[in-house]
Give the backbone structure.
Amino acid sequence: MTYKSTARRAVLAVSTMSVMASVLPTATATATASAPESSPAASTAPAWCPTMDGHQVDCGRLDRPLVVGKPELGEVKVSYAVVRHSAPGPAKGTVAVNPGGPGETSIDKAEAFAWGLEGLLKDHDLLLVDPRGTGTSQPVPCGVTDAEYRFGTRDRQRAAVERCAKNLGPRAAGYTSAATADDIDAIRAHLGVAKLSLYGLSYGTYLMPVYASRHPEHVRSIVLSGAYPLQLDPLARPSAQAVSSNLHRVCERRVPVACDGRQAVRDLATTAARLRAQPMTVPITTEHGVYTKRFTEDKLANLLFEAASSQVGFEPDKPSLLGQLPHALDRFVKGDAAPLRKLVQEEGKTGSTVDQAPYIAVTCNDYRKAWSKDAPLPERWRQYNAALAAVRPGEHGAFSAKGFTEGTTDAGDVCIGWPRENTPDPQPTKLKLPDVPVLVLSGDLDANTPDASGKKAAAQFRDSRFLSARNMGHVPELEPSRCVTGISSHFLRNGTSGDTSCLRALPPIAVTPVHPVRG
């Protein structure tokens, strides 16, 4: 699953927003209510407050309780930036954006958002909030880096989660989607804004429904992109199944056909089985040094459903991880591991030293698990193993159930050692949500948050529309023609999606040919 930006998601969200500056259209989202005209003088702006030609940017911080009802744990300063509209008169509305994570920042991406929303910002304000524990909102470390967490063995990942919890102590209870949603609403009230239009990307598609359920009277409309439902599958079956579908699609959409999709899936199953029996060791060279990665079935799963979904369709004619996979799998089955090893090495270079406290705490506190939070550890393991044993053949596509779920960094058993004491119950999954217009967008080559998950996310709302962008991966706004963001713009301004025919005309991605194409 990596529903939604995993430990890698934090990295993925960074890259997502960096490229969005070059592809977002000049008119999108809308909102209601006027923001106050008054703002702090430029001389009083904090050093972290962004500056932007043509726009006043107001920044501030609110003191928020770390854990409601536990004043002994203190407060957290939550930072926000408001990019003010450029035209005279009051703002016609305010758009609140969350780019993903959990744990991704927003304020440092103000310029990218403002460029992408240039047309809207003539008469709308843009609200950016760094979630508590991130960026300018009092970062909280727990001693677990992105590279360690993402590339470590499953045993090490579970140990990292337990170490993170121990280092956070009772403060871990303060990092939840509900707390972040309440922070956003406190800032909304502080600014005097009556209603927000919510725009969530990746993990933001989880956060924004939580906000909407807690503060329904302050929501006008919602766009969710790269979405998954609150009632997500803790065994990540939708993502596993989407991996096989994506191999079929990329092979057969090129003209001439680049590979046989059915054979690519068979090659994937063979590769997964071989790595399950005999993992491959891969040397990785990064700016932080050289290390050896143990490439197992679970790491293959992560490569195919998460890494391979990133930025698909952004530059469709250039090589991508997803487009190279059929060839790499074909060569591996035939005894040549070099192409697959190269893809693993390239992915390994993306590891960073960013601390994963906000990511680990939010996912382990909030997301559905295959065990009861109140159960002791031995009983949790019994419940989890029973859930795996109940998986029907084929539900994880070409992978074993254990292999695929261990490829996730926010599902399966990774949080099984998260403490019962001093942590909140998981986020409720059946919420009363406001009857407002909702648009859910997905890329049909996204195995991270696949179409099946997006449809379930849309079904949470009474007045929703689900749209799938052909040949796009995770967060389909990245496509260069501005088709997707044009539809979002029309929806948020008018309550309808308008002409969506362009979604079916987006070009197929480049695929390394597999010769001969086998039947």
Observations:
- The two ends are 30 Å apart (CA to CA).
- The longest helix spans residues 237-253.
- The mean pLDDT is 89.
